[in-house]
Amino acid sequence: MTTDERLNRIYQKQEQILDKQDDILRQQAAQAEVCKARELRLHALEGATFGNARPGLKSDVVVLKDQVADLRRIRGKAFWALVSLVAAVVSGGLLIVGEAALAWVKS
After folding, report:
1. Exposed, middle or buried, 56 (CB in 10 Å: 0-12/13-18/19+)?
2. Residues 56, 48: contact at Cβ < 8 Å?
3. CA–CA dist 56, 47 (Å, integer)
4. Cα-only R_g, the chain
5. Cα–Cα distance between 34 and 36 in angstroms, integer?
6. Rounded-to-10 torsion of CA 11, 15, 21, 25
7. Cα–Cα distance between 106 and 100 in angstroms, integer?
8. What is the pLDDT along the chain (107 residues), one digit of tens a residue?
9. Torsion of CA 40, 41, 44, 46, to 10 degrees
10. Residue 54: which residues within 8 A CB-CB, separation 6 or more?
11. What string of DSSP letters covers 10-76?
12. Which one-letter DSSP state was computed for residue 103?
């Protein structure tokens, strides 16, 4: 094998290595673009979730949980208020019927 043949083989190998390097760099650039897009999407999702100085979903969930707790507390009070109202109506009805029965017995 002559020196020229050896040099040609070395150049060919070098070209193959440079081609592989170019492929790797293209792939890396494509991945960097994907990473940028993902980073922007993640930033947008974080903004929606945490708000980034504005009300976000997390604060909305906390407010909704508080409102649900308030509604449950009000519902319990409303139930007992309804029971009291029904008891008052029944008591009033019994008093009216009792007075009518008493008036009927006296007459």
Report:
1. middle
2. yes
3. 7
4. 42
5. 5
6. 140
7. 10
8. 788 899 999 999 999 999 999 999 999 988 888 888 888 888 888 877 777 767 777 788 888 899 998 888 888 888 889 899 999 999 999 999 988 888 888 87
9. -110
10. 47
11. HHHHHHHHHHHHHHHHHHHHHHHHHHHHHHHHHHHHHHHHH-SSS--HHHHHHHHHHHHHHHHHHHH
12. H
Token pair recorded at residue 48: 């929606």
Of 46, 65, 66, give the one whose Cα is nearest residue 56.
46
Distance of CA 107 to the CA centre of its chain: 73
d(CA 27, CA 34): 11
As given in the structure block, the two tokens for residue 12 are: 């060919």
Type of residue at 97: V
The rounded distance, in Å, linking the Cα atoms of 18 and 3 is: 22
